[in-house]
Design a protein that fits this description.
Elements lengths: L1 E5 L3 H12 L3 E5 L3 H8 L4 E2 L3 H7 L5 E4 L5 H13 L5 E4 L5 H12 L4 E8 L4 H4 L2 E5 L2 H14 L5 E5 L3 H28 L9 H8 L8 H12 L15 H12 L4 H13 L5 H14 L10
Parallel strand pairs: 1-2, 1-4, 2-3, 4-5, 5-6, 7-8
Antiparallel strand pairs: 6-7
């Protein structure tokens, strides 16, 4: 199947590569041409402007946007809205707020352009293992695009969640849960670090142990084992944890609907605190984000 990938960052680049490996035709575009050139060497068709993207796609065109949430997506949606034709399809696969999907979907619908939102989880490991996809939009459009979703996802790794915004809504809650899970691991290792046994404890070995039949086993613990193997005390990074938006949106949704979500709320507050006060638990969370998503960490102050 043919599609354009607009935005070749950590996620977009590897998603495009996975599609190419399975024989899809990918029109590649990135604001900085060097990434487009890189993907062309791996079999993509290069485009160096949005108008060139549109010209190289066959009708009905499929344009997948992998860009940071916010005004950058709006800018590209506005351009595509002027250039695309009725029955063309725009997919937003970034970490977008679901209410923005509803607004953008309505904007595109006025010109007969279809809109799909795809929550994507898998981080920098998705190229090899596949991406978990949570998808919203029209069911008929979803069915048309299913060959793309099937390629990107592992077996049983994609789901139609409902109308426009449903995919990103489910991904928002997914990331809120992720906040709470990582905070719990961070606090647990912080307790170990503060214990009288800390000098004899091997945190990589404990992470590995807890994945052998334990009720707290998870992929996050696999990544924790990897992080501790690289740096046993995480002394190379500061416990500074960014919040990328989804946690805030999850708590905002909980407030709007009167749902109690204290664990997720407190994990968000802890991220705010990490930005002014360093702790071992925050180092654990920062290291996990680096392992699964390639998120930048702040180097520890060397005294």
């Amino acid at each position: 199947m043919q599609l354009a990938m607009i935005g070749l960052g950590r996620m977009g680049m590897n998603m495009a590569k996975r599609l190419l490996l399975e024989g899809h035709e990918v029109i590649a575009y990135n604001r900085t041409p060097i990434k487009t050139d890189q993907l062309v060497k791996e079999g993509a068709i290069g485009a160096y402007s949005i108008s060139e993207v549109v010209d190289k796609l066959s009708h009905p065109r499929v344009a997948w946007i992998m860009l940071p949430a916010g005004s950058t997506v709006d800018d590209h949606i506005n351009i595509l809205n002027e250039m695309l034709s009725p029955d063309d399809i725009v997919i937003d696969g970034g970490n977008t707020y679901y209410k923005d999907d509803i607004r953008r979907g309505g904007q595109l619908a006025k010109r007969g352009i279809k809109f799909m939102d795809a929550g994507v989880s898998g981080g920098i490991w998705g190229l090899k293992k596949g991406y978990c996809l949570m998808i919203g939009g029209e069911k008929e459009t979803y069915q048309h695009l299913e060959p793309i979703f099937k390629t990107l996802a592992p077996e049983q790794g994609y789901l139609f969640c409902g109308g426009v915004g449903a995919g990103h809504f489910v991904k928002m809650v997914h990331n809120g849960i992720e906040y709470g899970m990582m905070q719990a691991y961070g606090e647990g290792f912080n307790i170990l670090e503060a214990s009288p046994y800390s000098e004899s404890l091997d945190y990589a070995a404990i992470s590995h142990l807890w994945n052998q039949g334990s009720v707290v086993r998870s992929w996050l613990l696999e990544l924790m084992e990897s992080a501790f193997a690289k740096e046993p005390n995480l002394s190379d990074i500061r416990g500074y944890v960014e919040d990328s938006g989804e946690g805030r949106w999850t708590i905002q949704q909980a407030i709007e609907t009167g749902v109690s979500a204290p664990v997720i709320a407190l994990s968000l507050m802890r991220r705010f605190r990490s930005q002014v006060q360093d702790s071992f638990s925050d180092k654990v969370v920062a290291a996990l984000r680096r392992e699964f998503g390639g998120h930048a960490t702040v180097a520890a102050d060397k005294k």
